């Protein structure tokens, strides 16, 4: 939704800060947002009680299933700025790492991401506006291969891939995949819903806080033709400002490398919580 109001007797059209009359300085524009990404993903299991600790009520953990990934994203800025990848490439690419927990809301299956890191400030703010729990990382990288580099194996059985996320000078998450065979769409764990928490605190009496459970409205899903399946590993590291290591020990199941595209249209409010 575009924010329109009078500021110093001037009509302002901005979605987020910076708030200016033209709206051009907004760190992000409004949805929809279209994405395409390369993923290295590892599915794993952990103690359901440890996972439940990170779920907001009334989300309920399922069987302890979870997922970790590192990804390389390309995206649009807005429907009104489709030339951004040409005019400002840095505003249309970013890296992301995350850990998601398989859960249910009123028996409807989905996934909730209590941990998500990105390396662009605008992706951070965009995520907050939608309901994703995001932090800014120092460094997120993943293996990139090219078929014309000699002596470096391209995608196929035996190829090894990895990715990691670091914040405040410390590594937080790393994943790896050793490809054993070609995968299929059935190897991806499908979750009908993606749940999030839109939370903006009040800092003084008289302000209104935002505290609402939402379902991210996603669509236009497209899966790349090449999917690679293999042995996956996940490592979680202790850091003073992170708690992801609390879900250790984990049991890796398998990993995938693939491309995926989708659109985020906004967020549907499921429940609004009390101010306290």
Radius of gyration: 20 Å
Q: Compute the average pLDDT.
A: 93
Count of DSSP-assigned helices:
3
CATH topology value of the largest domain: Acetoacetate decarboxylase-like
Quick one: CATH class of the largest domain? Mainly Beta
Helix content: under 10%
What would you call the shape? globular
Q: What would CATH call the architecture of the largest domain?
A: Beta Barrel
The H-and-E topology, N to C, reads as EEEHEHEEHEEEEEEEE
Major sheet characteristics: 7 strands, mixed, barrel
Tell me the CATH superfamily of the largest domain: Acetoacetate decarboxylase-like
Spans of at least 5 consecutive residues whose pLDDT stays below 50 are none
Q: What is the terminal separation in angstroms?
A: 27 Å
Strand order of the largest sheet: 3-4-5-6-11-12-14
Number of E-state strands? 14
How would you briefly describe this protein structure?
The protein is mainly β and 276 residues long. It contains three helices and 14 strands.
Write the layout of secondary structure elements.
Elements: E1 3-7, E2 10-14, E3 33-45, H1 48-52, E4 60-75, H2 84-87, E5 93-105, E6 108-118, H3 121-130, E7 135-136, E8 139-142, E9 160-167, E10 170-182, E11 193-200, E12 210-223, E13 228-236, E14 251-272
Parallel strand pairs: 6-7, 6-11
Antiparallel strand pairs: 1-2, 3-4, 3-14, 4-5, 5-6, 8-9, 9-10, 10-13, 11-12, 12-14, 13-14
């Amino acid at each position: 939704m575009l924010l329109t109001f009078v500021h110093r007797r001037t009509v302002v059209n901005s979605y987020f800060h910076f708030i200016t009359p033209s709206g051009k300085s907004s760190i992000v524009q409004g949805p929809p947002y279209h994405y395409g990404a390369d993923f290295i993903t590892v599915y794993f299991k952990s103690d359901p009680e440890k996972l439940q600790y990170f779920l907001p009520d009334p989300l309920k953990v399922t069987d302890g299933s979870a997922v970790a990934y590192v990804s390389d994203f390309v995206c649009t800025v807005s429907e009104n700025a489709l030339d951004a990848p040409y005019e400002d490439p840095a505003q249309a690419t970013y890296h992301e790492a995350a850990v998601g927990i398989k859960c249910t809301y009123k028996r409807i299956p989905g996934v909730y991401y209590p941990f998500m890191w990105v390396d662009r400030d605008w992706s951070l703010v965009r995520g907050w506006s939608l309901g994703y729990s995001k932090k800014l990382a120092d460094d997120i990288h993943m293996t990139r291969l090219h078929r014309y580099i000699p002596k470096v194996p391209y995608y196929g059985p035996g190829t090894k891939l990895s990715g990691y996320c670091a914040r405040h000078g410390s590594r937080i998450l790393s994943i790896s995949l050793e490809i054993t065979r070609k995968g299929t769409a059935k190897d991806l764990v499908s979750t009908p819903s993606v749940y999030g928490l839109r939370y903006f605190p009040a800092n003084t009496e008289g302000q209104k806080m935002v505290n609402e459970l939402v379902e991210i409205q996603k669509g236009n899903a497209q899966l790349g033709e090449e999917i690679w399946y293999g042995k996956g590993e996940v490592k979680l590291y202790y850091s003073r400002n992170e708690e992801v290591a609390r879900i250790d020990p984990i049991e890796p199941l398998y990993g995938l490398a693939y491309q995926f595209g989708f659109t985020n249209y906004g967020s549907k409010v499921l429940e609004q919580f009390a101010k306290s």
